[in-house]
């Protein structure tokens, strides 16, 4: 059996694929069927009815609650569970009459005939529904631009701009995703662990019971775990919240500054090691799915950066960070208070008030925020260098349509279906880019056309390198900070343009990755590629119009939408973050912080370190190809370390502990149990926890303005600490600290 740790090393041989008629990876063997029934219907009436129903309802629900804080979100695992009984119900009640379809419809992946109820509800229909629903669960980041413009900059935005921002970012992402199939979907080594949970649950729900198997069936096991997770989450989710924010050392010494800074989970480094809340344990991704080698890479990088380097720099008061809280994603002024952006903004014309800025304060970053900037800069360069060294030959050969990796059984089975031509995806991409240029040029976006092209190119350049990391580790690559930095330099003083630049660069990458992930799910479930294309395109357009409709309806009927004291808590938390970032990186700009001789200029040199480290590991792998050095992946380690803040140490430490138990110990000692139950256990824990969280929110937090609560020690002990107050190690002097001129 081929070790999963070899995913990043590109040393698989043809013999690995010819060992058996299956994937050479144990994870895929345990989750994905190596059989296919080409006659199984896919694009049935049930598929479209349930898929469109979920696309409309879920995108509306998530868009509404995206603007609220606190709020739950419906996740893909929930849609997968809920769509199953609906599909079964329709297969019982729909009539069996059949109609023949025109011949030309076969080019779209449609069957020769049409029936409302052609067969029992099957796994391919279910998978197609899940793919449609996955698109609807994606956050409506594109709406942040118009929300900020309307609610914070008081500039009305037309419907056309709203809908084109959503559609163009999704269309560019989808077009690019399709063109990346040969790199990120077809190779067996691109296993996409997050899809294995979906595949396992789909196979579990549609599998026939095997009486010869010992122990409960996967189907029964899933619902046991689901019920247990649902029941348990009432404790950390409502009854005993301290089990979630498990900063037990701080409870013992609530007034000790250093203890709270090291062990706290709000403004501290979270050295308490564990939490009893599955949503906290799986904050970085389910540790039952993340490969062990990737988890180790991430935890080592995190521990070095945040448990060693950051505390040393903090207590030595590097960059005056000791006057600020240890860990937060806020920026501060020279008095140690959160930076008051309104104090330096000229509301007439929304320009920086230079006089007010000079009288007030420059920006100061907390130590973990400065560290995550450095890690993000390292990631931006390391992922490009790593891809060139480890995957450059493969990319070159695949561009030339050569093959250096033999097809696995799943790819061979998929060759029975007509592939989607590249020009379909290329047309999508070209049309979307053209519409983007029209959007920027025809509406007053304050953004030069050339700059939006640069933003799109940044997202496209990082798509394949980030896809290699996402496909084998489950860690998405964040380019938010580097994009804000670039935008602040090339289009300075334009806050709305800064948001739009960030929107296109980040969303092209993020949506491209999630579209590729769904393409791989369709690949695993043996859905004809043209059928996958059809459901993704339809869901993209439906979701876009629903999200824009919900947003514009709320703007029309809620006059104080996004106000901090909005009675229904529709405070637009993400739009507020975009607004603050537009002030910091658009108006004030990075040049005042990162130019040569400025305060944080040394952080830029982390880019150089990021470019050098993959070269060192690559040379070591070539020198010692069979040593543990081959398990090191610099971009994977850095990508996982960019979640903090808002993540804390307990998210990392509890995740690595659970991953060690399930992905190392149980996998190696109890492989049969692991292959049968591991991924379905992850699905049950995710589903039960999310459903319970939604129930708690709708029944106890939403009514009466969130005043329903249990006031006792278990729900207050973690808040009665210096950690929760966000104290600093040093008290800022009355005259302020840091530079005397800026």
Give the tags.
transmembrane, mainly alpha, protein transport, 4 strands, disordered N terminus, two-stranded antiparallel sheet, peptide transport, transmembrane helix
> What percent of residues adopt helix (DSSP H or I)?
55-70%
How many angstroms separate the termini? 61 Å
Overall pLDDT: 87
- The count of helical stretches stands at 29
**How many strands, which pairing sense, and closed or not: the largest β-sheet?**
2 strands, antiparallel
Please count the beta strands (DSSP E, at least 2 residues each): 4
User: What structural class is derived from the secondary structure elements?
Assistant: mainly alpha
- Radius of gyration from the CA trace? 26 Å
- What spatial form do the alpha-carbon principal axes imply? globular
How large is the share of residues in beta strands? Answer: under 5%
Which parts are unreliable, with pLDDT below 50 for 5 consecutive residues or more? 1-12
Strands across the major sheet, in which order?
A: 1-2
In oligomeric terms, what are we looking at?
single chain
